[in-house]
Amino acid sequence: MMGDEFFKKENPVRWLFEQFPELNASQIAKAMGINETLFRNYINGSKRPSAERIVDIENFLHKLAKELSETHLL
Q1: Distance (Å, rounded) from C-alpha 15 to C-alpha 73?
Q2: Whole-prediction pTM
Q3: What pLDDT, in 10s, does the model give residues 6-37?
Q4: Can you tell me the distance from the alpha carbon of 4 to that of 73, in angstroms, rounded to the nearest whole number?
Q5: What CATH number does the domain located at 4-69 have?
Q6: Which among 68, 52, 53 has a CA at the least distance from the CA of 20?
Q7: What angle do CA 64, 70, 74 make, to 5 degrees?
């Protein structure tokens, strides 16, 4: 059986969306300007994102997390 680190290395985008199922892949793709079908293909493993694309996705999610952490509802 494959370990989590192996799976993360082989398909980090899929690994991320399995770790955080509350993330909406379609909305993230739209916000990033990535074709939704292509983005879903990254997640299901039928396409492999380049290292640069992985960094772009990671940077986008970090920016989103920062914005969320700075949001106050009251």
Answers
A1: 31
A2: 0.82
A3: 556 678 999 999 999 999 999 999 999 999 99
A4: 36
A5: 1.10.260
A6: 68
A7: 125
Tokens (6 digits) for 1? 């059986």
Query: Mind giving me the DSSP string for the chain?
Result: ---HHHHHHH-HHHHHHHH-TTS-HHHHHHHHT--HHHHHHHHHTSS---HHHHHHHHHHHHHHHHHHHT----
Q: How many residues does the chain have?
A: 74
Instruction: Find the angle CA(28)-CA(65)-CA(3) to the nearest 5 degrees.
Output: 80
In the numeric block, which tokens belong to residue 56?
């772009």
Domain ranges of the chain: 4-69
